[in-house]
């Protein structure tokens, strides 16, 4: 049996912080454009991702990049990679 030390590529998403009231946790809204199957019109879909923020650095309105990670709690499956842009 050979050991495979190579990991799978993890998903990375960009979004806006909508809540940072929890301790070491943020809620990130990720918006994606999806083509409607019947009408072929683009529809905006929003997903809320719960992410781990170790340093409590992110604030509401910040544009952030999150990466998929192991489950940290019941809902948290993402972690903060970087703050792309601070809220004005």
Provide key terms for this protein.
mainly beta; OB fold (Dihydrolipoamide Acetyltransferase, E2P); about 0% helix
Description:
With 88 residues, the chain is mainly β. It has a single domain (12-85), classed as Nucleic acid-binding proteins (OB fold (Dihydrolipoamide Acetyltransferase, E2P)), CATH 2.40.50. Helix content is 0%, strand content 50%. The protein contains no helices and 5 strands. The protein has strands at residues 12-19, 25-35, 42-52, 63-68, 78-85. It has a 5-stranded mixed β-barrel with strand order 1-2-3-5-4. It is globular, with a radius of gyration of 16 Å.
- Briefly note the structural class of the backbone: mainly beta
Regarding CATH, which class? Mainly Beta
Total number of β-strand segments? 5
Order of helices and strands: EEEEE
The count of domains is: 1
The portion of residues forming beta strands comes to over 45%
Largest sheet: 5 strands, mixed, barrel
Cα Rg: 16 Å
Strand order of the largest sheet: 1-2-3-5-4
Average residue-wise pLDDT: 95
Uncertain regions: pLDDT < 50 for 5+ in a row?
none
Overall outline: globular
Distance between the termini: 55 Å
The CATH superfamily appears as: Nucleic acid-binding proteins
CATH structural architecture: Beta Barrel
């Amino acid at each position: 049996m050979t050991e495979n030390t190579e990991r799978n590529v993890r998903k990375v998403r960009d979004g806006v912080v909508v809540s940072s009231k929890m301790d070491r946790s943020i809620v990130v809204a990720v918006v994606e454009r999806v083509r409607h199957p019947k009408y072929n019109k683009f529809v905006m879909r929003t997903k809320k991702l719960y992410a781990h923020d170790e340093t409590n650095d992110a604030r509401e309105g910040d544009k952030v990049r999150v990466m998929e990670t192991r489950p940290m709690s019941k809902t948290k499956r993402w972690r903060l990679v970087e703050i792309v842009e601070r809220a004005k």
